[in-house]
Amino acid sequence: EFTTNRRCFEEDFKTQVQAKEWLELEEDAQKAYVMGLLDRLEVVSRERRLKVARAVLYLAQGTFGECDSEVDVLHWSRYNCFLLYQMGTFSAFLELLHMEIDNSQACSSALRKPAISIADSTELRVLLSVMYLLVENIRLERETDSCRWRTARETFRTELSFSMHNEEPFALLLFSMVTKFCSGLAPHFPIKKVLLLLWKVVMFTLGGFEHLQVLKIQKRAELGLPPLTEDSIQVVKSMRAASPPSYTLDLGESQLQLLTKQDSLDIYNERDLFKTEEPATEEEEESAGDGERTLDGELDLLEQDPLVPPPPSQASLSAERVAFPKGLPWAPKVRQKDIEHFLEMSRNKFIGFTLGQDTDTLVGLPRPIHESVKTLKQVTRVGSQREKNKETKGTFLQIGSLVGTLEVSLAQKFKSPKFWLSCICCLWPKYLGPCRPHSKATVCTDSSSPHRSITVLQSMKLGIDVNRHKEIIVKSISALLLLLLKHFRLNHIYQFEYVSQHLVFANCIPLILKFFNQNILSYITAKNSISVLDYPCCTIQDLPELTTESLEAGDNNQFCWRNLFSCINLLRLLNKLTKWKHSRTMMLVVFKSAPILKRALKVKQAMLQLYVLKLLKIQTKYLGRQWRKSNMKTMSAIYQKVRHRMNDDWAYGNDIDARPWDFQAEECTLRANIEAFNSRRYDKPQDSEFSPVDNCLQSVLGQRLDLPEDFHYSYELWLEREVFSQPICWEELLQNH
């Protein structure tokens, strides 16, 4: 298709510009030609319109026919994308995308076919490819960007975030495409491109993880809270991967050689972290450092600073902050609930009565208890949500998670976003299961060949491409959901809990565990890519003749970073769903997640191991003494890698939270709190819960509702989505009421 795009551009360009190439034109001439292309997009003929769209795609791809190197292709792709956006290309392609989505003839034709191929989604793929290149090139910031480009970037971000020109935000349009595809109404949609573009749009409009950290710091400053002392990603970068538990029977020779290089780390694991030791000699350090680099190139822990802190100075003794040993990567934390529980036990023991949530009154308690409370308060972190929850009511909420900075008023209830919430929840069973390697279930990818009879070589090439598409789908879904959950949590904790509970009810936890119930090491080292066909390499070099040997060889990369990224995202999602939720932790125990997660420790990557160890730590108290006794290496790794929490009896199982409570009641209580929050913040206030109900249809329809100013822009879309497209069974409705 690269060749087809180039041919369409050259045919059109020769009719408009004589004896010159694109790179030889002045900027004004380039703008004039782009304006002519956009004018030729507004033709009735689908075939002519597709040729012009392919010409625009060739420009967005970097006019590789006139370039000599891959660097030149990427440079001109970025330049052309800014030029195309400034001339209004994105708006023109957005109108074409609306036309293709509403094309009922294409939907009905795809529904009648027994199998979908790439020929059924040609127009959509061209449109989405242009939009993706525009979003990705404009989204990435560089120091060399001109002021005009920086202004264009902010304008584009605003345009994607808000409802403009009687249209819904672009992210919601993509979510509607996901809904139509998952419901089976539009099986020809290229879902990989839709999900990938949706993830990039959300990342562009809301910001990625680095921007989230900046927002977190700003909100804490606004609430008068102390600044954050740690950045989790930066701390993990300085950590080094631990030796995985021994699985001699399951490993091949190459993997066993990988494990034998970890002897020095095993020796380190058996040391006492707080015991004074003689520093190692230079020869010992050199021998320990050979071959000890992890995937991120972290330094050996044996070559770092001594584990024992130096003697404290007079200034440090007078400071209120606690000095922690350098051997532990994280500073310990304490929740307010832990201090209250500690004081409740102490008061019952020494005084005989309690004072509820009072953590300041220490009258009657011995001096060591005073010191303990002082130490606990020094490592207590007050979250911004705790301060935010002190607010009793609010009229507007900035739901940046989907529509940028669109303010939603009381009339649009946050508690029933059926449209996009159904999109999020249907992604899991629809794709995460079928996209597992070696899964027998089929998933529709936009790489299926339109030809029935293919050779063995074409079959191998298609198989590699299908697996690559599955990997990209998993990557997009996991990154999108993690980003949305983190933004929800920053915006308000009950929004996060609401979406999390829906994901749990959609079987998110067992699906992730099922995904990891495979050979994760082989999944991360999979080579489902053909390097000579990757962009921009394939556009510059002459393609060699593909053989079965070259396809089996794959690329030279030792690991597939795409799959590693997906695994880390899924583990982080699982952590977010189960953290401090004992009912969901019991789901991990019931589904026997411990051996599945323990096998994932074979992957020698610090961040992945950290989130695996976190999941093992929260369920250790439920696994019994025998499991802890036979997995002491894992327990030691948890102690070294995971943050310590004061009064957390995770290693012994004596915690009061480990008792067999009614876990279903815990979820019901959480749901009741969420409903109360939604009712308090977004429902119309009622004088009393026993207010009379108006049964007159005429007066009910005549009531005036306070709607947001921009609601009339998307009123028809709202009707189509929430009213006309919802099936209503009137007989059942009458029977129930």
UniProtKB/TrEMBL annotation:
Domain Far11/STRP C-terminal: 366-715
Region ranges (Disordered): 272-292
GO biological-process terms attached to the record: cytoskeleton organization
Any one cellular-component term (Gene Ontology): cytosol
Far11/STRP N-terminal domain boundaries: 1-264
SMART domains: DUF3402, N1221
Entries under Pfam families matching the protein: DUF3402, N1221
Biased composition (Acidic residues): 279-289
Assigned protein family: Belongs to the STRIP family.
Protein name: Striatin interacting protein 2
Species name: Ursus maritimus (Polar bear)
